[in-house]
Amino acid sequence: MKHSTVKKTALCAGLTVGGLALAAGALYTEIMTTIIARRHTPMTDKLTEIATGTPTPTDPVHDEWAQKLKDTPTDLVEIRARDGMVLRAHRYRAENPRRVLILAHGWHSTWNRDFCASSPFFHDNDCELLLIEQRCHGQSGGGLISYGINERYDILSWLEWVEANIPGLPVYLCGISMGASTVLMAAGLPIAGRVAGIIADAGYTTPKEIISETVGKVIGKAAAPTIAAVNLNCRVREGFGFSDYSTIDAMTQNKDIPVLFIHGDADDFVPWRMSLENYLACQAPKELWIVPGAGHGLGYVVDTATYQKKVLAFFAAHDESAAPAQVS
Prior knowledge:
The protein is of the alpha/beta class. It contains twelve helices and eight strands. It has helices at residues 3-37, 42-52, 60-71, 119-124, 151-165, 178-186, 207-219, 223-238, 247-253, 272-281, 299-302, 304-318, and strands spanning 75-80, 86-92, 99-104, 127-133, 171-176, 197-201, 259-264, 286-291. Strands 1-2-4-3-5-6-7-8 form an eight-stranded mixed β-sheet, with helices on both faces. Helix 1 (3-37) packs across helix 8, helix 5 packs across helix 6 and helix 9 runs parallel beside helix 10. The longest helix has 35 residues, at 3-37.
């Protein structure tokens, strides 16, 4: 065989191998982007099961509570976010409302699941509830989950809707897990004087840190390059990166809106130290309650009496602190 022929054959083989490697890398990035930042579907459950080697956990009791809240009569509300995305929420009316709560659920969760235990308590204590469906979740639009970076602006849009449609009442922002960090990040926007307080249950510090924490448990040292690839994919597709903004940034800027931080010390998904760091960064009036024995977002279930006592005290202290929402 001539030398030139051998050289061409080697070059073709190299290009083929290189092409296959690039294709494999692109496919891997798409799979990990789906797990980390795309809408929850049966496929994402299956991919997560494959990646972790464990089935998606189920909780029959929570399933029952979630179904009960889903079956409760609510009004479907629809708005357009500032980027034109269609967002939806469920308004659970109170007979004699004294305040409005905008409730934000967590990553890959639903409006009726994260608050299935606490919603009856809030409702019975004269709270008008707006249970939002975060972008890229449920019936809301969206292509990628940004872990609060874009979602914080959605909270501002929902606040504007409340001011126009349920005027005259103090407004609280409440969230669990990613929802907690979303409402905390919203505190970095011009909402001071418009929000009476924030209740943040099991929030994380930064998108990058919580993604690194969770992905690192599964793939170890491969987490850093994997997250870098997913981050670049999100930047190219929707213009955001996981380091663009954080809960810590917002809390450093927040000097006016009172915050009640809640976190279970048995949380194996978002470490409770993250709420401690958020609490230390917060420049506004604040309280931190670490719930003994509570797993992720389960403070209300584990210690219902103390949870209710602290939340009612928070309402009593701050109901009059913000100007009532007015029609804009």
